[in-house]
């Protein structure tokens, strides 16, 4: 076998295995780097006790609606039911969507939901919390520095999630097990 044939057979093997390996690697990377981040963030939004999932904390409102909280002198009781609904839905999303991605259930929809979440989170950070006024936090692409909290990190997050939206969860997932169950029925 010459070098060209060896190269071609290697590329063909990668083409066959890539779509099965990549989604599992993406989910493992998400679990290793972002699951804890989103769950820790969600925990700061829970109110006290078992009903805390329905009674968001002060932190939840200040994180999600910084300008509105400032406008009402940080008295969340002055905000309406729509603010409550957004905070509760956002908190639940931070728990549920990452969990679904890690186990590989409804992975494509969950990844798309997380992309939307990251976009909203980024806009809130840039506009609501004023990160756009801080170049060291905002960062810039093509600046030889890959550690900006907004421009660089969030781009990596979205690319990772886009891979899951495009490829799904892969063979080692609840999605794959459910598909196999449906086919055998």
From TrEMBL:
InterPro entries linked to this entry: DoxX
Entry's Gene Ontology cellular component terms: membrane
Bilayer topology term: Multi-pass membrane protein
Name of the molecule in the record: DoxX
Domain of life of the source: Bacteria
Subcellular localization, as worded in the UniProt entry: Membrane
Record's keyword annotation contains Transmembrane: yes
Chief localisation class: membrane
Keywords: Membrane, Transmembrane, Transmembrane helix
Source organism of this protein record: Tropicibacter naphthalenivorans
TM segment ranges: 21-40, 81-105, 112-132, 155-174
Pfam families hit by this protein: DoxX
């Amino acid at each position: 076998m010459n070098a060209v044939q060896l190269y071609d057979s290697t590329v063909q093997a990668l083409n066959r295995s890539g779509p099965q390996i990549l989604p599992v690697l993406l989910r493992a990377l998400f679990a290793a780097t972002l699951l804890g981040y989103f769950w820790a963030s969600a925990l700061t939004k829970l109110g006290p006790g078992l009903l805390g999932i329905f009674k968001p904390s002060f932190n939840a409102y200040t994180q999600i609606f910084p300008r509105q909280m400032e406008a009402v002198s940080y008295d969340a009781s002055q905000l309406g039911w729509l603010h409550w609904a957004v905070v509760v839905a956002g908190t639940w999303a931070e728990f549920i969507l990452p969990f679904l991605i890690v186990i590989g259930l409804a992975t494509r929809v969950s990844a798309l939901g997380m992309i939307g979440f990251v976009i909203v989170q980024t806009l809130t950070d840039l506009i609501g919390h004023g990160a756009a006024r801080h170049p060291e936090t905002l960062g810039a692409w093509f600046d030889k520095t890959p550690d900006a909290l907004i421009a660089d990190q969030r781009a990596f997050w979205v690319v990772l999630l886009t891979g899951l939206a495009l490829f799904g969860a892969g063979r080692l997932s609840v999605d794959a097990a459910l598909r196999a169950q449906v086919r055998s029925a």
